[in-house]
Amino acid sequence: MTKKIRFYDTTVSKPRPIKPAKGKLGILLPGMGAVASTFIAGVLSARKGMGKPIGSLTQMGAIRIGKRTDHNNPKIKDFVPLADLHDLVFGGWDIFPDNMYQAACKAGVLEHGHLAPIRKELEKIKPMKAVFDSNYVSRISGTNVKKGSSKMDLAQQLMTDIQQFKKTNKCDRIVIVWCGSTEKYQTQAPVHQSWAAFERGLQENSPDISPSQIYAYAAVKCGIPYANGAPNLSVDIPAIQDLAIKHNVPICGKDFKTGQTFMKTVLAPAFKARLLGMHGWFSANILGNRDGEVLDDPEAFKTKEESKLSVLDQILQPDVYPELYGNVDHRVRIVYYPPARRQ
Fold it and tell me: Mind listing the pLDDT tens digit for each residue in 180-209?
């Protein structure tokens, strides 16, 4: 029998119990291409018992309670108040109008045999019109795009989408996870320094406000947790962070880190733990689909590159261990593979 434990939010001045995960949880995804369609198809397949949720920490992971010798290792999903897979409802936005079955077929990640049993469910999931700016993603364009008088107007349209989705699908809670393309490299500007400056920038159509930041703003204003699945300058700016604190909304993320960065975060701590120095680190991705096409643009690649380059410094601490890691030649490459461009 697992001991009942109360969970608290420690980010506020007074601890507050976290409510049980009851009712439907809506998951809204800006960007409904290869990543989103594979994620959704995987959840639907697991719900039907067609396979196990391999790779899911929440569904397959266990947590140790007490000493190792106690052998008390309940599943995380049984210990932490999390939504059940059957309570998840999916939606989102994309610049292409393809439903999730069409998107999954074009992405080519899953085979027809995987998609056929869940085709009807996938076809019902259709993207809403997206906020898009070709100045931030230049290699792709679509027709399923919002138009507005200002970036604030676009943010308000997103807020309306969120509330309508919640009402239509009878969701008790909503979360938003960015699954869209990597935007061009960006550094913080004055408009990012406070939520008041950011809101003025939205009203004045500031060129320094990217689509991902508009999504993050809309989410936080609606009191909805936002996770950033790309290395975009999205939630890691004072404007969004201050707004999140004001509304007591969780924000997180800086890329999904499932490829070469994942390998770095696995291997680098092992080398450091053994104090094994290195002279260089070379890593490369070969990508197809929209990810590869978008990252073929040097401006978008620079965003990804900066994220991937910084992770080694954070782990290896060259300033602390100059003899071991003070002069590492670190190279990052991403190669676009056009034959895998199925969209």
Answer: 988 998 999 999 999 999 999 999 999 999
Q: What would the mean pLDDT of 220-248 be, rounded to a whole number?
A: 95
How, if at all, do strands 329-336 and 280-287 pair? Answer: parallel
CATH number of 260-342: 3.30.360.10
In this structure, are residues 125 and 90 in contact, taking their beta carbons and an 8 Å threshold? Answer: yes
The alpha carbon dihedral of 21, 24, 29, 30 has a sign of negative
H-type alpha helices, the chain: 34-47, 57-60, 76-79, 100-107, 112-115, 119-123, 151-168, 195-203, 211-221, 238-247, 260-273, 289-295, 298-316, 322-325
Residue limits of CATH 3.40.50.720 in the chain: 24-252
C-alpha distance from residue 285 to each of 50, 271, 337 (Å) = 30, 22, 10
Best CA proximity match to 241, nearest among 274, 259, 217, 262: 217
Of the candidates 123, 132, 220, 145, the residue with the CA atom closest to the CA atom of residue 175: 220
| Residue of 334 and 97 predicted with greater confidence | 97
Quick one: pLDDT at residue 14?
64
Three-state DSSP class for 197?
Answer: helix
